Amino acid sequence: MLEQSYYSKADEIISQHGRTQKALIPIIQDIQSCYRYLPAELLSYVAKQLGINEAKAYSVATFYENFSFEAKGKYVIRVCDGTACHVRKSTLILDKLYKELNLSKEKHTTEDMLFTLETVSCLGACGLAPVLTVNDEVHAAMTPEKVSALIAKLKEEEQ
Amino acid sequence: MKLLTRQDLQKERVNAINKIKKQNCRILICAGTGCLAGGSEKIYNKLKEMAKEVEGVTLEFAKEAAHVGVHPSGCHGFCEMGPLVRIEPWNYLYIKVKEEDCEEIFQKTVLRGEPVEHLMYHQEDNVYQEQESIPFYAKQTRLVLKNCGHINAEDIDEYIAAGGYEALEKALFEMKPDDVIAQITESNLRGRGGGGFQTGYKWKQVARQQEKIRYVVCNGDEGDPGAFMDRSVMEGDPHKMLEGMAIAAYAVGAQEGYIYVRAEYPLAIKRLKMAIKQAEEFGLLGEDILGSGFNFTIHINRGAGAFVCGEGSALTASIEGERGMPRTKPPRTVEQGLFAKPTVLNNVETYANVPMIITNGASWYHEIGTQGSPGTKAFAITGSVNNTGLIEVPMGTTLREIVYDIGGGVKNDAAFKAVQIGGPSGGCLVSDNLDVKLDFDSLTKLGAMIGSGGLVVMDEGTCMVEVARFFMNFTQNESCGKCVPCREGTKRMLEILERIVAGNGTLEDLDLLEELGEAITATSLCGLGKSAALPVLSTLKNFRKEYEEHVVDKRCRTGNCQAMIRFIIQPEACKGCSKCARNCPVNAISGKVKEPFVINTETCIKCGACIDNCPFGAIYTEN
User: Fold this and answer.
1) In this protein, which residues make up the domain named 4Fe-4S ferredoxin-type (chain B) (predicted)?
2) Is there a contact between B456 and A65 if contact means CB atoms under 8 Å apart?
3) Which CATH architecture is the domain B384-404+416-457 placed in?
4) What pTM value is reported for the model?
5) Which of A63, A124, A140 has its CB closest to that of B222?
6) For chain A (length 159 residues), average pLDDT per consecutive 10?
């Protein structure tokens, strides 16, 4: 069971979008941007409030890649592996990040809940390839060296 | 301030033009995603601050007191050179501008009208002062992207001053809905999202439905990796697209519109929201637009990370709050689309073409492009090319002009190998195709497609088999799983390709790939599956030899396929110190001390520990 504040937040978001099925995706998107993940309890709650079947809500939430039932780190790093970035060796950037953060294809979030590492198929900033984003902020023309510097800087800010 | 009549809009246009004329110096700082990433916001803030100080002071170059307009503009397209700053009335374009350069720009250009040469584009001793003279721009025909980079993307007045909403005005007061459809049909505007379907025909179909509730939907789910033209229009000239949608709504009798934008484009969503709000305040969207009796409102839906939602029926399902899966057709979207009502569904660039066709007429439009595909096309040119960015050229422009004249040739003077056009649903074009005139029909003949317009240039150092595997991996990931050919077929094709790049493929695998590819193309439910095999089939056709090298010789000529790299000890250089063997994690190296050692390629995992440890530099790799 989540704290009451989560449900009040959900109520607030629901009231902005209305209680219809077409509001389901916008509502859970807002919840996710608020908490950086979609708590499963809230999905069930939203389904009930919207008068739709819980299984249905679950099927929608699991279909789209953006929704995550797992809590994410404070900094969500998304490495673009679109064609342009791939051709300009984005794999090296990703490998460097795996190493720096001690993460793997199976493990996306660091123990201290500071970093989550994901790949994305295209950020549309192909002219600056290879790119990555940290919480929507674009970092252009990345190199493994710039990756180390970036992580060091973020870690430093935390201390 | 609400504009209640047509005359109000015309008055507003005069005011807006005057407002711009007063600015005797206009500084346009690119605020597209690319330049923002390069720090253009800081440049904007700094110049804005500096401009305040000279407001109302007489400048050396101007007779009147200064009104310096500092504006965030949309994407100029020349992303490689960002952050970009354009300064009017001289049309200087400053490239790779840093915060430290602001002082010089201000002192020289803004106060005295002089160019800052070291910030200008150089090519072989030539300095290009004016933006329009730079080869990258000179060879383009920017119609859809005309305003991108030239107006403040966040100010509706700037769009109105540039002739914005003139087309909507003309449609509402001088044309009947049928006239609008007739005009668009005659122009032969074809869908820029990839299919190339005739827009006018779509609109006509919707207009003749019995059902009176209709919708206009804009597909801004630009998911093809390597394409970002729609993003630039949404970010740089959002009103143009809104105007196009409003005209479509008027033509087919719709009152509500939806824009579906991918979640990866937060800036586009922000600018569109801003634009819709401004248009509503001006009465250019909403109830009784300009007193014409026509009502139209627009909603924005954010995508949630499913590539398949670029497909029409999946997109409408997603707006309805369902899983974004395509359905069997008929009924088609024009009959039963969003909420099972007749729906016009076009993409961003298509809508952005509409206003100029209405303003200038269909015959004007036919003067541009080719007979079968009139107009222009925006392409995102990326990969191994000198000038990456966003360009717009007339249909029928050759690939050579795009890659060499505009793109400035292949990066580092490497040899041109291929261009992947249309992303994971497209095919590749090779050097033999460099002089083909690109339009919808010529590309279909070559087994490729324009798709959304992503052009990824690849040089000799790119392995085409690995590229095919990359695309198949993408499509397989994004397959929604509804129909068997796509769900299972792409998975098997990916397995085969992975086998080949790992060095375990056979010649039979190539035939199997072809057979599977053809079956998936013929039997899949939607466009995603139908085009999924295209990158593989087209690389197989054009680069079969490269595939054969992978499966027969177990060799990748580019060295891209890691598994095929061989580590070899040069016997002459090896002193037999055994350091490599001691450091090999899998005991793949053997030999007698003081005699040359040998690497067993079967056991070797290509970690490179031996190379790092050899004190004599005796170990090398071979592709």
Assistant:
1) 565-594, 595-623
2) no
3) Roll (3.10)
4) 0.92
5) A124
6) 92 96 96 93 96 96 94 92 84 91 92 92 80 89 93 91
